User: What shape does this take?
Amino acid sequence: MSLKQGILAGCAAFVLGGAAAGGAWAQNLVINNARIIDGTGKVIDHGFVVAKDGKILSVASGDAPAGSAGQRIDAHGMTVMASFIDAHRHLIPGPATA
Assistant: This one.
C-alpha cells in the first residue's frame, strides 16, 4: 500500500470511526472511484462508499448514485478500507507462517 493510499484509508477510518463515537463527528460522505477492501476481505477494484450521518449506507462496485449527498472524494488510485472501526491497521500480504 502506498503512502497516499494509507493516508486516504486512515482519513476514511477516522471520519467514519469518529462518527460512531458521537453525533458531533457524524457527516455525509461519498468516496468514489476507489479500490475498496470491505470488512469481509472482499476487494472491489472500482467502487464507492456512501456514508450518511456517520454510518456506512452502501459499499458497491461502479460509481456512486448521482443523488448521493455529502462531501465527495475522488479516490482514483487509492484504497479505502470500509467498515474498519479502528483507525490503526496493519495489512500484511502473503501467506501466514507458523
